[in-house]
Write a sequence for this structure.
């Protein structure tokens, strides 16, 4: 009985770790999408004369930093 409980506990821990990993992946994808939208908005505002090149550059830098940490997989869904 103890062996069964140990295996069940290990399986539950693996499942929780996988769930946490998936949640973090989804959150990183959502954050990447938000940064991409901010870059688009900054670029659009700059082109319309309401934004600045600095704001566009800051948005691009934030997006590039996110990609360096989390990868660019969120771009494939855009």
């Amino acid at each position: 009985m103890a062996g069964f409980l140990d295996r069940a506990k290990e399986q539950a821990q693996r499942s929780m770790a996988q769930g946490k990993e998936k949640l973090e992946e989804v959150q990183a994808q959502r954050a990447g999408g938000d940064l991409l939208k901010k870059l688009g908005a900054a670029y659009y505002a700059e082109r319309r004369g309401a934004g600045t090149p600095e704001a566009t550059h800051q948005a691009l830098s934030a997006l590039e930093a996110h990609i360096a940490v989390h990868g660019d997989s969120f771009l494939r869904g855009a």
